[in-house]
Amino acid sequence: MQLPISNRKGIPFFYPKSDIEFQRDDYELYHEMVVRQSALHLADPLWGGYPFQAIFDFTEKHYPNVTDIDIVELGCGVGRWIATLAKRFPTSTCWGIDYSYQMLKQAHRFWVEEKAIVLDLKDRGLDQQTIKGESLTNLQFGLAKAEELPFVDSSQDLVVHSFLLDRLENLTKALEEMYRVLKPKGKLMVVSPLNFQKAAHWKMYFPPGQLSDILKEMGFVLLDWEESMMFEEPLDKRGNVIRWNCLGFVAEKR
Ligand SMILES: C[S@@+](CC[C@H](N)C(=O)[O-])C[C@H]1O[C@@H](n2cnc3c(N)ncnc32)[C@H](O)[C@@H]1O
Questions:
Q1: Which domain holds residue 34?
Q2: Could you tell me if residue 70 is inside a domain?
Q3: CA distance 114 to 90
């Protein structure tokens, strides 16, 4: 693991994010993006369950049988998946990596410092929610780009991410980084709506068969591939939702 360049309120920075990069990053907008992510991933009772539970159900059968492993979630947001893995594998070393300091600060406060989160959702017609934090000792959060990971070659047993792939500037470079840091037989687990924002990305990675060809060329073996996983992101008291049509896959490093 590389040494951090700097540290801000308990969050190590492995990438020197400039003021301009902070200003341009929508995910640094506390009230819009962090509250939206916290509501989605941390307020289960409000929705009658975890709206993205299908991610865990899809990947569950591919988790290793051993417990002492190294796991990283990329684009972890408020850290729901990596925290779930940290609890599932209590003697593992778990890292949540994200490019947004605001997301990481929220994740760290909640999952590591055991601070409660008070979510004001009145603008969605919903009651204020107070969610109790946890104190996980095998989980750390750090700021880095998926395209420049701070881990040494062949160091991770599991690399996971959800709703990240289509938001990456340089997807091929990020996939190469994921391959580099995985141990041989290590697994990459991905769920993404493939909701690309750039014409060049649609051309290069869509339909999903093109993405699978790229993964195979890199040296991944595909263990699972599901092209139509439906997710509903709840929005408000009325029951409005965003419906996401996701690709889910599990790939193993040869
Ligand atoms: C749509 S959110 C997804 C969050 C969560 N994984 C989920 O399933 O909802 C995308 C997250 O990826 C982060 N992100 C965007 N580009 C990134 C990059 N290049 N490297 C690491 N994280 C990135 C954002 O800051 C944000 O927290």
A1: 6-253
A2: yes
A3: 17
